[in-house]
């Protein structure tokens, strides 16, 4: 395969990876997309491998996260973030090129490639600025049989297996294998696809049920003008709450559904109080709190007696979306950094909300972007969360695929931790999700809607909840160690040749 063909294959693979996620959702393309990347890294030297990795990842990330430019109003953060994520893939590609040179058996090349791929995914999901897990292969496989491994190995297991299937598929069709070896490779590939379907899913009985009403009040566009009008967003949620068609045990509003802090603002406080009294049950409310020149993203329970619970405060604000790293430096080059006038500061865990009077209800909370961050979700589950709540505000992303990509993550978390999950958006997409990841009800973008379902409450702890953090750490350490060792060997050999 020529250099040009390798780059064309890489770009085609990146486009296939993009198509595997919403808005297209052709998940079956993902193994082939990853297989194309794998093949590009083992056919040529490190330079072509790195360029192929960069081409593949830019072809994937640029369209996959194009909604970032809609949110912040300029293309800088979108291009910068896509480039940062692509550098991780390019570095992985160089390392995989070195490793596949030294490994002889195709099966060992596949195993090492799959493990290091999953490890580098985790590395980019943890750094810089806390990482950006968007685009993990595992999330795009939530509708495939491979997702059945989620309760056991989480993101790492599903991503690694998806990669392995693609690598084996390209090995079977591209190498000069004997007919018997080719047939064996195909059979192994089929076995890896079938195996997860036979894995038993968590079967613990629920401790009870909870009838949940998810209220999507909608936000009129333009969004900034709507939020500037005091009480407009809150009023829309009040009206939709009053229109609930049947009794519920708990009402959930989305992130920043209260457009002013109801604990401090009289108008908003009266609206929230009226909503709570109209249904006679607690409402989980989200609002922004301003304090000491910073802002905090709070979520708390409003009760019919007028009281509020202690809040859960978002622990992982989004860099360049909710706060600007190195603001004073970047301002010298980009005046648009001040579009975000007040930085959002992180809160502290655990990611849990207790709902007074509704035992055994403990809400594991993951506010918006936090559903992509496994540590946050796992923290809430291990703290006793019996229902996962994902309040979100997708209004700044327009009619993009951001909300349906997020829904994939919510479904993956439901399956991974065996928890019913409520993704509740101010403007869509909202969904009530069963513990097996299936969607019981779903809304559409920029519509007013209410979703009602009786959801099971579970407290069992899956293997992914017990050991998920250690699996991720092991994958990162192993991937980084193999890369460093490979680089050291290449450097040493090159130095010896230069001296000879």
From TrEMBL:
<feature type="domain" description="CN hydrolase">
    <location>
        <begin position="210"/>
        <end position="457"/>
    </location>
</feature>
<comment type="function">
    <text>Catalyzes the phospholipid dependent N-acylation of the N-terminal cysteine of apolipoprotein, the last step in lipoprotein maturation.</text>
</comment>
<keyword id="KW-0472">Membrane</keyword>
<keyword id="KW-0812">Transmembrane</keyword>
<keyword id="KW-1003">Cell membrane</keyword>
<keyword id="KW-0808">Transferase</keyword>
<dbReference type="InterPro" id="IPR003010">
    <property type="entry name" value="C-N_Hydrolase"/>
</dbReference>
<feature type="transmembrane region" description="Helical">
    <location>
        <begin position="156"/>
        <end position="173"/>
    </location>
</feature>
<dbReference type="InterPro" id="IPR004563">
    <property type="entry name" value="Apolipo_AcylTrfase"/>
</dbReference>
<feature type="transmembrane region" description="Helical">
    <location>
        <begin position="74"/>
        <end position="94"/>
    </location>
</feature>
<feature type="transmembrane region" description="Helical">
    <location>
        <begin position="473"/>
        <end position="492"/>
    </location>
</feature>
<dbReference type="GO" id="GO:0042158">
    <property type="term" value="P:lipoprotein biosynthetic process"/>
</dbReference>
<comment type="pathway">
    <text>Protein modification; lipoprotein biosynthesis (N-acyl transfer).</text>
</comment>
<protein>
    <recommendedName>
        <fullName>Apolipoprotein N-acyltransferase</fullName>
        <ecNumber>2.3.1.269</ecNumber>
    </recommendedName>
</protein>
<dbReference type="InterPro" id="IPR036526">
    <property type="entry name" value="C-N_Hydrolase_sf"/>
</dbReference>
<dbReference type="GO" id="GO:0005886">
    <property type="term" value="C:plasma membrane"/>
</dbReference>
<dbReference type="GO" id="GO:0016410">
    <property type="term" value="F:N-acyltransferase activity"/>
</dbReference>
<keyword id="KW-0012">Acyltransferase</keyword>
<dbReference type="Pfam" id="PF00795">
    <property type="entry name" value="CN_hydrolase"/>
</dbReference>
<dbReference type="InterPro" id="IPR045378">
    <property type="entry name" value="LNT_N"/>
</dbReference>
<feature type="transmembrane region" description="Helical">
    <location>
        <begin position="180"/>
        <end position="199"/>
    </location>
</feature>
<dbReference type="Pfam" id="PF20154">
    <property type="entry name" value="LNT_N"/>
</dbReference>
<keyword id="KW-1133">Transmembrane helix</keyword>
<comment type="similarity">
    <text>Belongs to the CN hydrolase family. Apolipoprotein N-acyltransferase subfamily.</text>
</comment>
<feature type="transmembrane region" description="Helical">
    <location>
        <begin position="45"/>
        <end position="62"/>
    </location>
</feature>
<keyword id="KW-0449">Lipoprotein</keyword>
<feature type="transmembrane region" description="Helical">
    <location>
        <begin position="7"/>
        <end position="39"/>
    </location>
</feature>
